[in-house]
Structure formats: C-alpha cells, structure tokens
Write a structure and sequence with these properties.
This protein has a 7-stranded antiparallel β-sheet with strand order 3-4-5-6-12-8-9, with no helix packed on it. Strands 2-1-7-11-10 form a 5-stranded antiparallel β-sheet, with no helix packed on it. The radius of gyration is 23 Å and the shape is elongated. The termini are far apart. With 221 residues, it is mostly beta strands. A hairpin with a 2-residue loop joins strand 10 and strand 11. Helices cover 0% and strands 56% of the residues.
C-alpha cells in the first residue's frame, strides 16, 4: 500500500508508512508531516470474496487532498488479468463499491483519489444482471413496433458506453439506448414486425469484460 502526494516544491515524493499505520508525506525538504492514517479493517463489507487486498481505512474521513494523489496497491498474489481488477472506494450511502480508473504496472495497481475512506483492490468476475425484459417470454403483443426494454445493472466495473450492448431481434441488430441512472435499456424494431413469433436476444458486457445474455420469445398478433 502506497500513497503518493505532491510536495510543495512540485516534486512528487513517495509517502512513508510507519509500523503503527501512520503515513507521512513531505512538507518541506528534510521534514515531514502526518497527512493520513492507514488501518486494515475487519468490517464486513459487500463482495468480500472479490477483495484481493484490503479493505484499508484511510483516514481521517474529512481529509481532502490539495493536489493529485495516487493510491498504489500490490496484491499478495499475482493476478492473471488486469482489466477486471481495480481500486475501489466503499460508499456507505449506496452500500456498494465505487470503481476507479486503475492502471497496472509490474503487478502494482494505481488510481488517482481525492479523498479518504475505505479502499480495497477488487476483482470483478460477476457478469451484469439482466432482468425485467419486456415483452416477457411467450407474451402476446398487439403492436407491430413494440418498445423493447430491460433492466441492466452491474455492481462493480459498471456499464459506461452503448457499445457494451448487443441487441438482436430475429438476428437483426437494433440500436441500444441506455439510461445509466435508471438502469433501463430501450430499443425498438427497425421496421414493423410480421404477425407470429419473434426472438429477442440481449447481450451485455461490463467494463471488466464479464458478459451476460438473455433470450426471450414473444408473439405479435
């Protein structure tokens, strides 16, 4: 665990972590001051089995960094893939982990942070959750251009861009529209549908590369 903060002489100097969990950072040349405290916590948090290192309580809670601060964590064991591993901060309000843009180099993971809190290095192996698909399976609809919707959620790396969706109706690609705030995916057929059975397939990939797939068949009357 390493916290890097900007010194007043505009040089970035590594902080020093003492045995009692106190981090010191440069104040002036040859001097240091305490900037934060670090503790390995035992509190039960979501996704415990996905945590590779930590969780660490970086305090005090009200501390804000005046400049770009880099948090670096090296897991105890080597990780096969870096794309699905990131530094995360726990949100008490949402009771979930916030995924940070993380860079890996020589087994060390780094992310830019601007505040203290509970941090951990987490691996995302869970695919997105696809639910509430409409029309439902075997449902009969009267509209020849029904609105097709689904609820798409991902608890870690998230879904940030429309290119992570693939919607096929009878094998034909449809344009996805995703409301990230409400987690609703919407689309419509490219042309009026003929009466009969139609196959809707939704494939979603989160930012860690995990995929989920859901297929339903509905009937246009």
């Amino acid at each position: 665990f390493l916290l890097t903060t900007p010194a007043k002489n505009s040089q970035t100097i590594d902080s020093l972590l003492t045995e009692n969990g106190t981090i010191f950072a440069p104040r002036t040349l040859g001097e240091t001051e305490r900037v934060t405290e670090l503790k390995l916590i035992r509190k039960r948090l979501p996704l415990k089995k996905s945590i590779l290192a930590g969780p660490f309580l970086v305090g005090p809670d009200d501390f804000r960094y005046s400049g770009e601060t880099v948090l670096s964590i090296r897991p105890d064991s080597q990780v096969k893939s870096a794309i699905n591993v990131a530094i995360c901060r726990f949100s008490d309000k949402d009771d979930e982990w916030d995924w940070f843009d993380t860079v890996e180099h020589d087994g060390v993971y780094t992310a830019i942070i601007n505040r203290n809190g509970v941090y951990a290095l987490i691996i995302d192996k869970a695919p997105p959750i696809i639910s509430s698909v409409s029309p439902r399976n075997s449902r009969r609809v009267k509209s020849k251009t029904p609105t097709l919707t689904a609820t798409i959620e991902d608890k870690l790396s998230g879904i940030w861009v429309d290119t992570l969706f693939d919607i096929r109706l009878d094998g034909e690609w449809l344009i996805p529209e995703y409301d990230a705030e409400d987690h609703i995916l919407r689309t419509k057929p490219n042309h009026p549908l003929k009466p009969g059975s139609h196959n809707l397939v939704i494939t979603v990939r989160d930012n860690a590369g995990n995929k989920a797939r859901r297929s339903v068949k509905f009937i246009v009357e």
